[in-house]
Structures are given as structure tokens and as C-alpha cells.
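Supplementary Methods S3. Complex input for the S-adenosyl-L-homocysteine-bound model.
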Amino acid sequence: MRPSGSVTAVGIGPGSPEHITPAARQALESADVIIGYHAYLHFIADIAPHVRRIGSGMRQEVERVRYAIQLAQHGNRVALVSGGDAGIYGMAGLLLEMLHAQRLSEIPVHIIPGISALNAAAALLGAPLMTDFAVISLSDYLVARETILHRVEAAAQADLVLCLYNPKSSRRREVFDQVCELLRHYRAPETPVGVVRAAYRPDQQVTLTTLERLSDVPVDMHTLVIVGNRSTYVHDNRMVTPRGYAEHRNLNESRME
Ligand code: SAH
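Predicted complex, serialized as C-alpha cells:
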């Protein structure tokens, strides 16, 4: 192995150039090869156009990491791209797991954080994540459905705001319906729910609804769903979960205290 090879897991944010961090941009520009899911490579088409790109399909994550490791072993600086943040349902964990399994601790690894879908969706909705929240993926590709439902139920019981990643795909609709059903046992029908599709992409859609009406809103694999807790409310089209200041301070006093 030439000593210069490395793998950098790069989170490129939700999909717009303004939301790629300077550190992520720098990692892409200094790479010899950029590897990623086709759709994500499309979002960074204008960045580092001189750098060789290798795109692959969905569910090809293991193959992608294997290839990245091989290229690094041959002396290449590889940027392994994830949408959002590389460490939130992204490539960083799989990269570390595979290096560990293959006992390849000599390969330098860097992980560049990115703006995750939850940051992007929360900003578009208002401030729904001001207090404790849980993040759950509804994809039952790698996690058993019972486990997903159990985690949703535990979070619902604990009155956590919920961020639901991978809510639905064309092949997989039932988990989402089961989760909605479950949430209705623990939360009032008027609980605010934010549905953000394609955040910060040209086809972005932001919808504020309620738990009761959630099934009327189109939800797909490009969507993040944020379900409020008992205190979440909507004012002026913004979803807010109070952190608790109002219980300690007078928020309607405009003069300096
Ligand atoms: N690493 C990514 C998540 C990958 S899992 C991150 O940190 O954001 C893929 C899921 O993320 C999608 O099914 C969707 O639920 C969510 N997601 C990713 N980008 C999104 C965007 N721009 N708008 C809305 N949801 C998004």
C-alpha cells in the first residue's frame, strides 16, 4: 500500500450547495476519487468536477465501502459520500465496521460531519427540536419491524418529539401506517406533525399537519416526518416545541429585565 491512501466519509448535507460545509467541500476537492450513491453525486456535480467519480445504486453500500477500501489500499484519497450527515444512517459506521472486520487499522479514516435531514427539516418547519427528541428510521431492511415499533412506542411513551427517517418507500408502506396507528394511542389527534420532502432541493415541499390528518399527506423516501410532543404547537405557520423558558421567565415583557 502506498502511504497516501485514505478514506474520508463526507456528509454533503440535504442537497443544496449552500448547505455543504467548507470542510466537506475541501475533502471533495482534495480527493482522488469520489464514491457515492448516484443521486447524491448529482447534488455535488458542480463541486470538484475534475475528480473521478464512481456512482452506484441504492443498497450497494457494502460494495461501495469495499471498493473505497481497495482504492485507498492502492494509494488513492477516497471521498465516500453520504447525504446529510455521514454518521446518521450514512456510510461512516459501515466504513469503520468493515475496516475493523478486515483488520485494516492502518488505513487513515476521516469523518466530515454534514447537515442532517433533521436539521434541515427542523429549520424549514420552525423549531420543533428544541427539547429532547428521538430519531428513528422506519426502514425494516436492516432492522426488524418489531424493533422499530417497539422503539417508536418507547419514544411516544416518553413524550419525545420524533424524527422519522425513511418513513415510506414504494415497496414499503405498512410500517408507516402501523407507526401512525401506534402514535395515535399516545398522542392527541391535534398533535402537530411536520412533513418535509426534499428539503433544500428544487422540489422541496413543507407541510404542517396534525397526527389525525397525517395519512392525507404524501410521504415517500425523500421525506422526513417530525411528530410533536405534548407541548408542541403551531403559531404563524411555524412548529415550535417550547424548551421551558416560559415557565421560568416572562416572555411577553418587551423591556430589558
Ligand atoms: N445521512 C442522511 C440520512 C440517510 S437515510 C442524513 O443525515 O440526512 C435517508 C432518509 O433521510 C430519507 O428517507 C429521508 O427520510 C431523509 N432525508 C435525507 N435527505 C432529506 C431531505 N433533503 N429532505 C427530507 N428528508 C431527507
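The pocket of S-adenosyl-L-homocysteine is lined by residues 14-15, 82-85, 88-90, 116-117, 120-121, 165-166, 196-201, 221-224 (CB under 6 Å). The helical segments are 22-29, 38-43, 61-73, 92-101, 117-125, 145-157, 174-186.
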